[in-house]
Each structure stands twice: as C-alpha cells, then as structure tokens.
Specification:
This protein has a seven-stranded mixed sheet with strand order 3-2-1-4-5-7-6, covered by helices on one side. With 193 residues, it is an alpha/beta fold. It folds into two domains: 30 residues; 137 residues, Vaccinia Virus protein VP39 (Rossmann fold), CATH 3.40.50.150. The chain starts with a helix and ends in a 6-residue tail after the last strand. The protein is globular, with a radius of gyration of 21 Å. Strand 2, helix 5 and strand 3 form a beta-alpha-beta unit. The chain is built from six helices and seven strands.
Length: 193
C-alpha cells in the first residue's frame, strides 16, 4: 500500500507543478501579464548579427562620440555595446524579456552602463526622434512598417543602417557587403521622399 500512496503523492505533485507552470506561463500567478503581452508582440526572431557585420554597420553609420544610436530589435546587445565603445550613447530596444536581461548583463560585463542601456519595448512604438543613428536587423515587412516613423521622426542628416533588408522604394545612399551579407545606409533627407 505504501508504494501506491507514494505514487499518488508524486502524481499529485507533478499535476500541481504542471498546473502552476501553466498558470505562471499565462501570468495568472506571477503578475507577468504585461511582460507576456509584450512577448506576444514579437515580430522578428532573434538571429545574431556576426561581429564583423556589426563593426561595418557602425562604421557605415559613421557612429562617433556625441551620436545617439538606437538599435531596434537589439537581441543580445552587441550593436549597442559596439556603438558605446565608439563613445556614442546607445539604446537598444527589444521585446523579449530574456534577451533584455542577457543584453543588460553583457553591457554590465563590458563596463558600459554609463553609455548603453536596453529597454523592453515594442519597436513599432519607440519615439525615434532622439536618435542620430538607427540600426536594425529585422525583416522586410517590418522595415517597411518602420519607414514612415523613420522619415517623420528622425532629424535630417540622421543615418539608418539595416543588415540584410532594404526599405522597398526608398533607395539606400550606400550599400556594402561583408562576408556575403548586405548592409544598407540611408541618410534622412531635408525633406522626406
């Protein structure tokens, strides 16, 4: 009889644990409804940009001390960190809570907390107006969704750098290739096209 009781207790614990996991997953117990709401707005999977491409993006964007760099879909923070190492104020935006934590830790390890930060936010809702450089590695449809905000909110002379994907009929000022990967640069005109 004892083995049966042990088995029943173990079964109850497994069911309770799984049920608790499901409730926590949906924010019922844990109060994470807001974070999960953000997570549900993921529009791009995380695919890290190779460091040599990051370096070229920063170079192509002319990132320097005094710039404010916004990285949309900042993932593990590598573009933000590279921009901050150039002396720029760098802010990354990502909706994935785990990536936000990881990138904040990467910034801390690099000792760049005074120049770099990561915000958990839907990239389609970011006020881009403080940025002088915007970097991104998104998807073609997401670039096109962002295009009106980029043209409306960024000041003339601000630079936009995209890894892999263009902006449809908005022709880039410059295109470069690094190890088979394409990088696009646009400069915000005095009057939007």
């Amino acid at each position: 009889m004892r083995p049966l009781i042990r088995l029943s207790v173990a079964a109850i614990l497994v069911v309770f644990t799984l049920s608790s996991f499901q409730y926590a997953r949906f924010g019922i117990f844990s109060g994470t409804a807001h974070a999960q709401d953000l997570e549900s707005k993921k529009i791009v999977p995380f695919v890290p940009t190779p460091q040599e491409v990051v370096d070229k993006m920063i170079e192509l964007g002319g990132v320097k001390k005094g710039d404010v760099v916004y990285d949309l879909g900042s993932g593990d923070g590598r573009i933000v960190i590279t921009a901050a190492k150039k002396g720029a104020r760098a802010v990354g935006f990502d909706i994935d809570g785990d990536l936000v934590k990881e990138s904040r830790e990467n910034i801390r390890k690099a000792g760049l907390e005074k120049l770099a930060e990561i915000k958990q936010q839907d990239i389609l809702t970011v006020d881009l107006s403080p940025a002088t450089v915007v970097t991104m590695y998104l998807l073609p449809d997401v670039n096109l969704k962002l295009k009106p905000n980029l043209l409306k909110q960024l000041k003339p002379g601000s630079r936009v750098v995209s890894h892999a994907f263009d902006m449809g009929d908005w022709k880039p000022d410059k295109t470069e290739r690094v190890n088979g990967r394409t990088i696009y640069l646009w400069t915000i005109p005095a009057k939007a096209p």
